[in-house]
Each structure stands twice: as structure tokens, then as C-alpha cells.
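Fill in residues.
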């Protein structure tokens, strides 16, 4: 059951399995061992370059003063400036931010863009904060970590509960301190402030490109391909729309409040209009409502988990009935589930490859800001396709050459690239 399993508090074994730091360690250890990576280099790669904790005093709307805790972790700067989102959530922990920062290092290395990995977070509950309070938290957090930010140092982006507006505030605060407008200090900005065309749909579009490559590999025709999408948000919604446009049949869409099913295919654009009109995907005239717990296990060619982490785990991986899994979300599959899926011969396109379209177009945004020259959407999408297709080929051929599964290959490739950069640069003393 998906819902029950996402409450690990009820089950100590799942609590361990769902821990993001342990998950990152498991993947790192497997890849480092298979690579035979030097122990000293392993030490460097395991340890973040820098961690900053700041305490952010804010005058609330009612006049009270509150102090919020914020983190920014730079995991690696070996291949370029740190890149990674900033999240606002009540349950942010330093451990989580650390794990997510290392994740970004590997993701940027897999798609071979010149960034290291970083992540930030502020412990707060945005649902009870006004826009003014959010703006003050964002600006003070930015000012408090300003020494480690910059287009050549650390380039944040939106993440959970942060958005274009948050990035605009960060860009403005940084620019006010530097006394000049510096758009390249963050990505995911509004188009009118140096954002990139194609960024909103980039992650879903990246999912499309790698899925098309997987279909090609298995000599499957898009028009003969059935797809189940979990999560109809930015990633899942765009992936569903673009896969439908490419001729694939979206047979089911799963949301937190229900799932819809039509073996002949669902039109994601019509489904989105229905949700906008009614507030839910359920009750859609073009499909029947089905049990959301069971929809994940429908027989299909491609399953796109694009909602959240840890949805495929040791208790349900046996029931997955897909030939290919394209991981739109970060960490949808636990390390234990990986082993089960591998035994069952499921072809997994791992998150650090499958959802890297977003960070790739963030890289394009940074390049355009630094050039002061902006590309049209066709150019952005074409360059994204080239990077996603090449990265898919790199990972899959690495997996075949080394006889490992795709996730392990992606991590090995990434670790190897970062380790090589460290070796070339040397250890400065
Ligand atoms: P989003 O909030 O736009 O969409 C997530 C959707 O999933 C929402 O519609 C939500 O209602 C739904 N959902 C939540 N829990 C669910 C559940 N248990 N079952 C079914 N549906 C559920 O978020 P997003 O930006 O699309 O991100 C989704 C995932 O992709 C996250 O793991 C995120 O870290 C990852 N990701 C996003 C990007 C990006 O560019 N947006 C890039 C890389 C990775």
C-alpha cells in the first residue's frame, strides 16, 4: 500500500530504508567499491566541502521576533560552482540537506554539466507565513550566506515550497549587496528577470527524451507504449503531456486524492483542464476512477513515478508491473527496492539521469545570463535533447560494459568524473 508505506514512523525497518542520508550512502558505497576508488578520494567525496548554518531573526507581521534556522551545504566544487535548490519546510534537517547536496553533485556529473552540488533549506512552515514574512526570511537568509553565493561559487534554484518569486528576491538581495545586477546568481527566475525559456517543462521533457531512448533500445514503438504517471504536477504533468504528444498512451494518472484509468489513453491536457475546473483529477469524463493504491501496479510499458520519494520500496516492488521505470521524482525507489526490480529485470532510468532535464536547463539559464544573450525555446529544447540522449547512452553503455544496473552505472560514471576532476586539480595544501 503506497499510503501506508509512506508513513515509516509506523515501521522501524522502513524508517531506515527511507532515510535519505542512508540511501545516498548505499548508492555511493556500491559505486565506489565497484570502481575500486582510492580510499582517500572516497573520504573527500563523502565529505561536504562546506556547511553553513545561519540563524535568521525576522520581525513577524504581528510585531513578534522569530528566529529561523537555515542551512546551505556545498557538497563538491570540484567540477564548478555548487548547484542545487533551496527548500522551505518545517522538517528540513542538516542531514537531509547534506544528502541532497551530494545527490546534486552526482546529477550534474551524470549529464556532464560544469557544476558541483549544493542544497539549502530553511526550517519554516510556508503555509502559515505571509508573503511579507516569506520575503523577509528569503532576503535575510540570502544576506547571511552571501559570502558563499555567486555565479562562480554557488547558484541556488527553487525546490520544495520555493518558486520564481523566491529566486527573484534572492537575485535582488544579492544584487543590492554587490551594487550591480547579477542575474546568474540563481536559476529558475521569472523570464523577465533572466529566466530561460523552456525551464518550466524541462524536467518532464527530459523524462520524455530518455524514455524515447529506452523504447528505441527495446524496439518498442511510442504508439504501442502504455504509460502510468504518478504525480500530475510540474514533472509528471509535463511528462504526461509530452509523452501523449509523442504518441504514447497515458493509461493512468495517479494523484494524492485518487487515480484515473483508461486503457485507450487519457488526454493530459483535458485532464488538466478538468482538474483546474473541479480541483481534482477524479471524476474525469475521459476515464474511470480507480483505487490509487492499486494504480501503481497496473501492467504497463512505462511507469513514471513523479510525485515524491520512497514510493517504490521493499514491500511493494514485487508488485510493480512495468517494463521500464522513468524516475521523474527524486529518490522514488529505495535501495532495497532496487535489488528487487533488478532481479525482476525492470529497466530503471535512475533519477539522477531521468530528471536531470531541470538542472540542465538551469545550466542553460546560467549560461544565457552570463552571455546576456537569450535563446529561443527551440534552441533550448534541442540542446536539452542532445544532453539527455548523450547522457542516456553514456549510462546505458557503461552499465553494459561493467555489467551493472543503470543506477549503479550512473553513480559510477558520476563518481569517476568528479574523482577525475579532483585528481587533475590535486589536493591544495
Ligand atoms: P509538484 O508539487 O509540482 O508535483 C507533485 C505532484 O505529486 C502534485 O500534484 C502532488 O499532488 C502529487 N503527489 C504528492 N504526493 C503524492 C502521492 N503520494 N501520490 C500521488 N501523487 C502525489 O512537484 P514537482 O516539481 O513535479 O516535483 C515532483 C518530484 O520531482 C519531486 O521528487 C521533485 O524533487 C522532483 N524533481 C523536480 C524537478 C523540477 O524541475 N520540478 C526536477 C528534478 C526533480
Amino acid at each position: 500500500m503506497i499510503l501506508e508505506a509512506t508513513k515509516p514512523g509506523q515501521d522501524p525497518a522502513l524508517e531506515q530504508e527511507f532515510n535519505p542520508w542512508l540511501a545516498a550512502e548505499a548508492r555511493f558505497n556500491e559505486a565506489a567499491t565497484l570502481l575500486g576508488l582510492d580510499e582517500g578520494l572516497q573520504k573527500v567525496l563523502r565529505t561536504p566541502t562546506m556547511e553553513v548554518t545561519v540563524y535568521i531573526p525576522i520581525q513577524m507581521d504581528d510585531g513578534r521576533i522569530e528566529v529561523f534556522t537555515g542551512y546551505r551545504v556545498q557538497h563538491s566544487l570540484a567540477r564548478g560552482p555548487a548547484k542545487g535548490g533551496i527548500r522551505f519546510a518545517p522538517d528540513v534537517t542538516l542531514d537531509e540537506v547534506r544528502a541532497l547536496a551530494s545527490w546534486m553533485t552526482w546529477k550534474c556529473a551524470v549529464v556532464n554539466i560544469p557544476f558541483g552540488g549544493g542544497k539549502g533549506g530553511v526550517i519554516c512552515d510556508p503555509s502559515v507565513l505571509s508573503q511579507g514574512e516569506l520575503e523577509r526570511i528569503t532576503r535575510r537568509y540570502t544576506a547571511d550566506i552571501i559570502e558563499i553565493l555567486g555565479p562562480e561559487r554557488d547558484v541556488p534554484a527553487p525546490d520544495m515550497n520555493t518558486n520564481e518569486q523566491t529566486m527573484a528576491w534572492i537575485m535582488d538581495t544579492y544584487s543590492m549587496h554587490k551594487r550591480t545586477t547579477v542575474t546568474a546568481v540563481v536559476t529558475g527566475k521569472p523570464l523577465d528577470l533572466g529566466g530561460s525559456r523552456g525551464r518550466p517543462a524541462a524536467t518532464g521533457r527530459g523524462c520524455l527524451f530518455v524514455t524515447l531512448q529506452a523504447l528505441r533500445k527495446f524496439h518498442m514503438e511510442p504508439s504501442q507504449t502504455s504509460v502510468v504517471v504518478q504525480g500530475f504536477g510540474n514533472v509528471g504533468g509535463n511528462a504526461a503531456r509530452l509523452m501523449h504528444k509523442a504518441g504514447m498512451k497515458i493509461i493512468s494518472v495517479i494523484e494524492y486524492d485518487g487515480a484515473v484509468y483508461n486503457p485507450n489513453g487519457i488526454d493530459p491536457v483535458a485532464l488538466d483542464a478538468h482538474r483546474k475546473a473541479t480541483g481534482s483529477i477524479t471524476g474525469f469524463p475521459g476515464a474511470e476512477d480507480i483505487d490509487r493504491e492499486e494504480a501503481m501496479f497496473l501492467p504497463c510499458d512505462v511507469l513514471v513515478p513523479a510525485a515524491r520519494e520512497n514510493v517504490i520500496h521493499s514491500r511493494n516492488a514485487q508488485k510493480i508491473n512495468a517494463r521500464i521505470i522513468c524516475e521523474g521524482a527524486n529518490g522514488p525507489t529505495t535501495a532495497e527496492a532496487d535489488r528487487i526490480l533488478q532481479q525482476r529485470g525492470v529497466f530503471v532510468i535512475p533519477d539522477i539521469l531521468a530528471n536531470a532535464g531541470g538542472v540542465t536547463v538551469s545550466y542553460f539559464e546560467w549560461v544565457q545570463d552570463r552571455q546576456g544573450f537569450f535563446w529561443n525555446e527551440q534552441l533550448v529544447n534541442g540542446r536539452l535533447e542532445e544532453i539527455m540522449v548523450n547522457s542516456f547512452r553514456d549510462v546505458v553503455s557503461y552499465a553494459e560494459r561493467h555489467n551493472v544496473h543503470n543506477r549503479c552505472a550512473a553513480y559510477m560514471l558520476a563518481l569517476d568524473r568528479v574523482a577525475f576532476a579532483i585528481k587533475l586539480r590535486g589536493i591544495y595544501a
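The longest strand covers residues 65-76.
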